[in-house]
Design brief:
The protein is mostly helical and 139 residues long. A two-stranded antiparallel ribbon has the order 1-2. Strand 1 and strand 2 form a beta hairpin. The longest helix is centred in the last third of the chain and has 17 residues. It is elongated, with a radius of gyration of 17 Å. It starts with a helix and ends in a 9-residue tail after the last helix.
């Protein structure tokens, strides 16, 4: 299974935020640290905020913080949230499903089972399990 870069970057951001829970992170700061587009990270942060994973604050001292403790954030939930618009294969889409094998395909069930097992495995881990170690200057 392959995750989108959207999910990859979202997980990186959360791993970093979990390493220093006492402070807020700006998307500009995270973009610079990871050498990624600030605009792209802003979209990811918005999705994480709408999903209740992070809280965002505007103004001086603003930025994003985790909405819950890392122990309460399941990796499967994060992946589901960030991958919600990205079905594993075209036939998993609600509309339009253009698969010419629909109704006769034996692969779809196996792929759905594999996807379910993949997410179930991630549900056994939390953000606390993958948090980055604190940086020495922050420790």
């Amino acid at each position: 299974m392959r995750l989108t870069s959207f999910t990859d970057y979202g997980l990186r951001m959360l791993m970093r935020m979990a390493s220093s829970q006492e402070r807020a992170f700006s998307t500009a700061e995270l973009a610079e640290e990871f050498k990624l587009s600030r605009n792209h990270l802003s979209k990811i942060m918005q999705r994480l905020s709408r999903g209740g994973i992070v809280e965002t604050r505007r103004g001086g001292g603003g930025g994003a913080v985790l909405a819950r403790t890392p122990h309460d954030i399941r990796l499967g939930d994060v992946v589901r949230l960030l991958e919600e618009d990205q079905p594993l294969v075209a036939c998993f889409q609600i509309q339009p499903n253009t698969c010419s094998l629909d109704g006769r395909c034996r692969l779809k069930t196996r792929l759905r089972t594999a996807e379910t097992a993949f997410l179930a495995d991630l549900d056994r881990s939390t953000l606390a399990d993958i948090a980055l170690p604190p940086r020495s200057a922050e420790a």
